[in-house]
Fold this protein.
Amino acid sequence: MTRPHYAWIVVGAIFLSLLVAAGVRSSPSVLIVPLEQAFGWSRTTISAAISINIVLYGAVGPFAASLMQRFGIRRTVLSALALIVGGLLLSTQMSTPWQLIATWGLLVGLGTGVIAMVLGVTVVGRWFKTNRGLAMGLLSASTASGQLVFLPLLAAVAQNYGWQPVVLIVAGAAAALVPLIFFLVPEHPADVGLRPYGATEDEPTEIPSGNPFTNAIDTLVRVGRSRDFWLLFGTFFICGLSTNGLIGTHLISNCLDNGIPEVRAASLLAMMGVFDLIGTTASGWLSDRYDNRWLLFWYYGLRGVSLMFLPYSGYGLYGLSLFAVFYGLDWLATVPPTSRLTADIFGKGDAPVVFGWISAGHQLGAGTAALGAGVFRTIFDTYLPAFLVAGVACLAAALFVLWIGRRGSTAPRPQTDVV
């Protein structure tokens, strides 16, 4: 029996890491109401901390990619895990809003920002010559799996035992990743005597010199002259606006407003996670074979329709199930074609850092939605405006993606091909 290429072992370890990080990242959605009840904080105050978490989750991406190139994946990820676990444990002792912002907003936001899609792009770039879309699809689907595994459990714990046990559960899960990363994730295929999956000849491994933060900024300055970069950045901003910023943060609270219990609402997110696992993996397979711009056109367009449908679904079993299936298939299906377009346009060497900047746009959009939807809910006593704004934005993104790669918009080519 032929042994699987070690690249798939690395994908498995990174999948679990991204899954747990997604569980940590999504857990505030089940804590909004318990924190309101425990401390009397407003939904706007809690949403502000979540918004900071989400923005940092994206903003740290390009610097994390540069740190991985300079110091290695293993050391960077282990440091991030220490930050996450420390922030979570400190949050169990919080009593004021600034402590919520410092722990969940700053420390957890910075740590989970390292163990995010930029990690997936870096790993796929190092370990795969072929089947990159499929590998990226699998890693992207880990976010959905994180919801599937964590949210129903966390919602039940929060409902029956309060918010602190929820924090301890996700802290324990993050701590369990430390030996997984330490023992199973080499830096490069050559470290275990292999070539990247699908490679027919050895590829040089270059370690960039200089300050990793300066390298990240220099990359942004260079690619910022490209229209393609801003089209990818802007459409991914809308992707974040319409996914984890709105649905991932506020769907449970929105369901509670409409008479749906918290555990059932979390199960709805988990159901969406099942279908996103299918949709995002399939999207990776499709991105290896079809025009990625047209894939994004359909993904954003269909997502916009589903978001505008939800407020008028009646929140019954049929309407919510239809939304969960339809939206779930599309949740993170945008990631594989976006990452592939980034690599095709900007080159393999620059792709992790450039995708980190594009991901920062995603999380900036998510942070905008997390805070904005909370403000809408406070002012209008309903989430309806937030869903309509996100739906229209998705329809606009469906048109913008068709301009990517057109004449006159090509990017400056990278100077080196660093892996």
Summary: The chain is about 75% helix and 0% strand. Residues 408-419 have pLDDT under 50 and may be disordered. Residues 292 and 337 are 5 Å apart (CA to CA). The chain has one domain: 6-189+209-403.
